[in-house]
Write a structure and sequence with these properties.
Elements lengths: L1 H19 L5 E3 L13 E8 L2 H5 L2 E3 L1 E2 L7 E3 L12 E7 L8 E10 L3 H6 L8 E3 L6 E2 L1 E7 L4 E11 L5 E7 L10 H4 L4 E5 L8 E3 L4 E7 L3 E4 L4 E5 L6 E4 L11 E8 L7 E6 L7 E6 L7 E6 L4 E9 L2 E10 L6 E3 L12 E9 L5 H12 L1 H4 E8 L4 E5 L3 E2 L7 E9 L5 E10 L13 E2 L16 E10 L7 E9 L1
């Protein structure tokens, strides 16, 4: 009888493994009923974990069980703006290029090309947005140019505060295929700016970003050329080629700061006008450059027919060049670029980029920062590597199962998962002991099951108390593997 018992036991073991793999529950009963045979039933018992509460009863580390109930995914990166945006990059402003602590500064973010933006942003850059360093507070921005084929970007971001002593960090988000444009152009230029003209149009009239309208009307020939920042506009010497902005809705104001990038092709003896706002019969506002003398030539700010005197300062390339007093003249005439508002023979022969007027006296630190930002945007703003929505790795360890049987065998481990190509993966470890241990204990040691796919029926340890642990990983943090169900069979 003993020999027969051993043969039957071995036979039942083979039948058990073959019958239990791939089924919801396996039960085998010993048909031996002779007297003295105490082995009356042999059942493979299912321990199934598939609900959110099942998974949350374990030990969670950098994984998420709540966004998709009954599933385990990698955790969302901390302080993420919105789950609809798949990517972001950290932008760090070099504090050594900030001239003073500043508020509401329009930072130029300029990228000659960016493969990540080309691959993942909308073709028109409508999904690009910027946040504060907290990753969630949105900042107003304007996109002057975006090329979806190369990722070339020219954007102006209104940063609420810039420090001259520590680096300022912001985030650029992208990778939302379905959202509308995230720009708020007029929000960037809402405080004090009276006109901002990027000279970004390739032909025709030019847009004033303060009104987000084509307010600068082209007259004659004003070409579009490569500029200091993006595109610029170029006129030849003469009075018939210029841009004009009507005085309607654009009253005179004091105090005033005017700034632009200018490049002359030639100098006029009678001072060519970069811009002019002059009544026909008397002096008004002029920015004049030129002169017949040898370099450095002359640069002057002219106001005629004065009532009061005011302090005037001229900055060249961010550095104060001259200061003095000038008469203050109220003027509500049209604003001309490239020519005088009165008289003839005073047209500018050259190029203008980024023309602005501000109602107030901008500080020397603000002007210096503008120059640094716009002259060397790639070193002013350092752009970091692409970050995805998910963390790169996380683990979930199950609660500990008490089988109630010393030396209980682990029959099989099944799981259901969703993984994306070669970028995501889920691997398993198991452990067992006849001595109780808590789900978070460091011992007993884990048995690594490697990269074997479900199911696993060998190499599984024995013991009354059992636990499994899954590790979720991704090399593309815009994607996550998903663990949907885990089934353990034991006997």
């Amino acid at each position: 009888m003993k020999k027969k018992w051993l043969i039957l036991l071995a036979s039942l073991g083979v039948i058990l493994l073959a019958s239990s793999v791939g089924v919801t529950k396996a039960s085998l009963f010993d048909l031996e009923i002779s007297s003295g045979n105490t082995f009356e039933a042999w059942t493979s018992i299912l321990w199934r974990q598939t609900t959110q509460s099942d998974f949350e009863a374990g030990v969670l580390n950098n994984v998420d069980t709540s966004s998709s109930a009954g599933d385990v995914k990698l955790a969302i990166a901390s302080s993420w703006y919105n789950a609809s945006w798949a990517y972001r990059k950290k932008i760090t402003v070099d504090h050594t290029k900030v001239g003073a602590d500043l508020m509401d500064f329009p930072v130029l973010v300029s990228l000659a090309s960016d493969a990540d933006l080309a691959n993942d942003a909308q073709d028109d850059g409508g999904d690009i947005l910027f946040t504060k360093s907290d990753g969630t507070t949105k900042l107003d921005h304007e996109i002057e140019k975006f090329d979806g084929s190369t990722g070339k970007l020219i954007a102006w971001v209104k940063v609420s505060s810039l420090s001259s002593s520590v680096n300022t960090e912001i985030y650029m988000y992208y990778g939302n295929a379905t959202c509308g444009s995230q720009e708020n152009i007029m929000g960037v230029w809402a405080s004090g700016w009276k006109t901002v003209c990027h000279m970004a149009e390739t032909s025709g009239n030019e847009k004033d970003s303060v009104t987000n309208s084509l307010d600068y009307v082209k007259t004659g020939t004003v070409a579009s050329v490569a500029g200091k920042i993006g595109q610029a506009r170029k006129s030849t010497s003469g009075d018939s080629n210029y841009l004009i902005k009507s005085e309607v809705g654009f009253p005179d104001f004091r105090p005033i700061t005017v700034m632009a990038w200018v490049k002359f092709s030639s100098w006029l003896a009678e001072y060519g006008r970069v811009f002019s706002r002059e009544p026909s019969g008397s002096g008004g506002l002029d920015w004049e450059c030129g002169g017949s003398t040898s370099p450095p030539y002359a640069l002057r700010w002219w106001v005629g027919d004065s009532f009061d005197s005011a302090t005037a300062r001229i900055y060249i390339n961010g550095v104060e060049d001259a200061t003095g007093t000038m008469p203050d003249k109220t003027c509500s005439n049209p604003l001309y670029l490239f020519r005088s508002g009165k008289g003839t023979g005073r047209g500018m022969d050259g190029t203008i980029d980024e023309f602005r007027m501000y109602n107030g006296e901008l500080s020397a630190g603000f002007i210096k920062t503008c120059y640094n930002n716009q002259n060397s945007p790639s070193t002013f703003c350092l752009v970091g590597d692409e970050e995805g929505f998910y963390v790169s790795a996380g683990t979930i360890a199950s609660r500990v199962l008490d089988t109630g049987v010393t030396g209980a065998r682990w029959d099989a481990l099944f799981w259901s998962e969703t993984v994306e190509d070669s970028t995501t993966d889920i691997t398993f470890e198991v452990r067992a002991s006849d001595t109780w241990f808590d789900k978070g204990d460091a011992t007993p040691d884990w048995t690594d099951l490697g990269t074997t796919n479900s199911p696993i029926t060998s190499g599984l340890p024995s013991g009354r108390y059992k636990q499994w642990r899954a590790t979720l990983t991704t090399s593309d943090t815009s994607k996550t593997p998903t663990l949907k169900e885990v089934r353990v069979y034991h006997y």
